[in-house]
Amino acid sequence: MTDAFSHPWTCFDVSLDSGVAHIQLKRPEAMNSMIREFWNELPMIVRDIDHNARARAIVISSTGKHFSAGMDLAVFGGGGSTSQNQVQDRHINAEQQRHHIHWLQDCFGCLDDARIPVIVAIQGGCIGGAVDMTSACDIRYASADAFFCIQEINIGMTADVGTFPRLCKLIPEGWVREMAYTGRRMPAQKAKEIGWVNDVFDTHEECVAHALATAKEIASKAPLAVTGSKVMINYARDHSLKDGLDYIAVWQTGMFSGAHMGEAFKARAEKRDPVWQDLQPLRNEM
Description:
This protein has helices spanning 36-51, 84-88, 90-113, 129-135, 163-170, 173-182, 188-193, 204-219, 223-238, 241-255, 258-269, and strands at 12-17, 20-25, 57-61, 118-122, 125-127, 139-143, 147-149, 185-187, 199-201. It is α/β, with parallel strands linked by helices. The strands form two sheets. It has a six-stranded mixed beta sheet with strand order 1-2-3-4-6-9, with helices on both faces.
C-alpha cells in the first residue's frame, strides 16, 4: 500500500506534523510545471492521506519563484496531428479525449472531495492549470508577489480542468469573464479584494507559516465536525437553499455526536485541549 509520506515522489515532498500533511511542489527549476508524473502523483498522495485518515488537514505549498506555470504541454501528447486516419476517426478520438479531460478534472477533484480541509499557499505565478488546482482547495492564501492568470486563452484554448465551474462560485462572474477572455494577470491584492484569496502576506515564508498555523488550528477541532462542515459547505455551493437545509438536517440526524460536544465542554472546564478520535480509514474492499 502506498504511503504518501515515505514514497519517493517526482513532483512533491510530503511531510506530517501535528496532524497536518504538508504537500510541497518541488520542481522550482521548471517553475513547478505539471508534467505527466504530477497528474498521477497528486491524487495518489491526497487520496492516500484522506482515505487512510493520516492527517486532519492538508497544506499545499510550492518552492522557488513561482507556485506553478501550469500544465506542461507534453501532457497533451501529440495533439494537432492531421493524419488521414485521425481525420476519419475524429469523433472516435473526441470521445476518448472527453474521458481524458474527465481524468484530468478528477486529479484536482480529489482536493474538493477530500474529507479534510485543503489549504494552499501561493507565491509568484499561479498560471493555467494552477488556477484550476488552487480553485479546488478550501482556503487560499497568497504572498504579495503572487498573480493569477487564466493562461489557456493565450495559447488558443478554453480552460477545461475546473477553472470556470469553481471560479464562478468564488468570485464575481465579471472578473472570471475578463480574465478568461483577455488572459490578463490578476495581482494578489486584487484577488483578495474580490474574495479569491483569504489573505495576502509580505513574503512566501509568512504565507506558508500562516497556512500551516491555520491547518494546525483546524486539526485541533473535532474531525467529524470539520468534515461535516466541509460536506455541508460543498453541498450548499452545488444545491439550492432548500436542499442544503434538508441535507444538514439529515446529516445531523445521523452523525451529530453528543459525546463530542460533551468533550468540548469538559475540556474547556478542565482548561485542557480536547481529545478527539480521528476519522476512520475508508474501506475500499470487502
